[in-house]
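re: ur question from earlier - yeah i can do the single chain one, its not a big deal. heres the input i used so u can compare w yours
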Amino acid sequence: MELIILDSAQLIAQRAADVVEELLLAKPDAVLGTATGSSPLPLYDELVRRYEVGRISFKDVTGFMLDEYVGLPADHPERYSTFMETNLRSRIDMAPGALHGPDALSKDLQAACEDYEAQMARAGYCDLQILGIGTDGHIGFNEPGGALDSVTHVGVLAEQTRRDNARFFDGDVAAVPTHCLTQGLSTIMRARKLLLIATGRNKAQAIAQLVEGELSPQWPATVMQNHPDALVLVDPEAASLLRH
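and the output i got, formated as tokens:
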């Protein structure tokens, strides 16, 4: 696992976009794993900028989202499918329908998880998986205490995660869904390369555990220590608790 500390979110976005650009130039029909939340937003803006000036194209790219809330109606602005459509897919030349997500509107959520895992398997899983990290160390919505070898599944959101995400729901924790569909940790680990972005002091403990802690289900992101090609990009605040 490679750790790079950069001075700003913009520098992180540029370095992360370099990784995506390198992949797309080498493999125009790459399979890209996307993450939601605030951390990847500067990256998506930078990718859009590079697309607009003709440096990269997404016209042959297939995308897979990490996760989706259960219980939000199809038109809810905080659905992750809406987030990805608004912040990336609609701003580039990725084909409509090329960015996939788990069907959290399904009446059979377990079947929806199995179908999503099968879709990714047919695509050969992701060439590059973009990740953020929760304050409790989750990646995707794999919360502390879950199995390190999990596949796509129905998850229960930790109270800490719901408090953290309340800012997207006008500060109302009660409005944050309690369940989700998420790629499992073993699903994420099937990606050929992992790219994790973290900024801010609130991510410092999770980053310290990821980089220097023991592999543990209590800090799910530590599974990345076993990945052969994982890049972690952080700012000085997120790196503030690292010992070395």
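The chain has a mean pLDDT of 97. not sure if urs matches, ping me
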